[in-house]
Amino acid sequence: RRPSQWQVTMRVTLPWIMPGVIAGALFAFAVSFDQFVVSYFLSTPGEATLPVEIYAAIRKGFTPEINAVSTIIIAVSMGLMLVAARFFKFGGEK
After folding, report:
1. Contact (Cβ atoms closer than 8 angstroms) between residue 19 and residue 90
2. Which residues are CB-neighbours of 39 under 8 A, at least 6 positions away?
3. Which of 46, 50, 81, 86 holds its CA 20 to 30 A away from the CA of 75?
4. CA 33 remoteness from chain centre
5. Which comes out higher in pLDDT, residue 17 or 30?
6. What is the DSSP string of 38-62?
7. pLDDT surpasses 80 at 2
8. For the segment 3-20, what is each residue's pLDDT rounded down to a tens digit?
9. Which residues neighbour 90 within 8 Å (Cβ) at sequence distance 6 or greater?
């Protein structure tokens, strides 16, 4: 019996491309914080992205909330990287 296209995609193609998809998503997440200028100029007055909000808070003065948000962002980023590394076992035998 021949598998359907959906079965081939889910059981063969998706597992092979998943490390690249996860790495690309994590890279896009990390790079998005570096694009402050683009976020700053493209945001509307009523809505602001996280980097723009952090910048506005820093202009008012450093507060513990800014440090807490930065720590949370770093912890979440590192946690996602560790989960991805453990789940896909980059560079090792499966």
Report:
1. yes
2. 49, 51, 52
3. 46
4. 9
5. 17
6. HHHHHS-TT---HHHHHHHHHHH--
7. yes
8. 898 888 888 888 888 888
9. 19, 84
